[in-house]
Design goal:
The chain is α/β, with parallel strands linked by helices. Helix content is 36%, strand content 10%. It contains 12 helices and 8 strands. Strands 1, 2, 3, 4, 5, 6, 7 and 8 form an 8-stranded parallel beta sheet that branches. Helix 6 (238-249) links the parallel strand 3 and strand 4. The longest helix is centred in the first third of the chain and has 26 residues, at 2-27. The radius of gyration is 29 Å and the shape is globular. The termini are far apart. The model is unreliable at 1-5, 20-119 and 122-138 (pLDDT under 50).
Amino acid sequence: MMCKHRFMKSVVLGGLVAGVIYAGQHFYPASPVSPVVSIDVVWLDPINSVETVPVLAEAEVVEKAPVPENAPPVLEEVRGTVASGNVALPSSLTETGSTPSPVPVSDPVPLVPAADVRAAQPSSPDVSGPGLRSATPMMEESVRPMRLFAKPFTRQGKQPIVAVVIEGLGMSHGATTAAVQDLPGGVSLAYSPYAPNLSEQMERARVAGHELLLMLPMQPAAGQDDAGPDALMTVLPESTNMVRLKDVLGRGTGYVGVMPYMGGGFMASADGFRPVLRRIWENGLLFVGGIETPPVVLRDVADSLGIRALMPDAVIDTSLARKEIDAQLAKLVETAKKNGFALGVAGAYPVTIERLSVWAQGLKSSKVALAPVSAVFEAHGEAR
């Protein structure tokens, strides 16, 4: 009798438990669950949905050399990839009304109003021919971009001057920011035409006191990487190359001249390069050769047109060893003392920017002045 009572009690208790479970499943709503199940979320840049994942710079592995106590602040960490890196530009750099980080500048370039900048560059709607302005050999010097946007510089007599151009900027936010903010205004900057928000980036660099160049993509030497979809090519008709030239030159503002991006293959053909160099000059822009530029071809084409072009005297960072960079900078100074002027080009590697900062500080005590590239271009013309 006692066993039967216990059995009935168990049955009743089991029924109550089953009833509670059934009610919980069918009559009470489930608590909302957050869709974020992990804090390890890789956020995408809202501009172009490209992951802003930092890339290890090649120069990061270089052992850091001691810096003099009186040297200016330099990079203490790798702040981005090399200039050729394809890293998304953060929206903070492109939002309307955003304010860039303060830049300590002692000699800023007086900015021309934005409307005047766009009107003076080849992006003006007043064009003719296959792509650019018509030939304007009588263009007033004061409105030629190489004059209008040149950084003010006064050479003391025949004082030796040296210019340095950092090329390939605009694609990597870290490398571009470091070049603009950590280098003195006397260092000139060359921007990639493929950079996002190019005009805004270039204007900020001018506000910081830098003179600017725009890079023109051209067919590279055999076996080299692709120069991009807008490159001038020897296999294209001249009219197509002129349309591409116009398109590229219309992307930036406030620059004094053009520098090739790659170009060894295209410039090797004097017949193909000649009309391009002529149009660049007719539009009031100076031309500075690059790493792949054949010096003899550039000289011969420029001479045949009766115009001037400038070749660099040294590539500063073919080696990323600090001693080698310092040695190239020292040779650049000696070239300036010998010839009266010198031009060096370099990439935006962290180690390069660091050594340039130290070198520029020490240059003040020498008899050689750091100058914008337009000043060296003028000195080159006076020496001819």
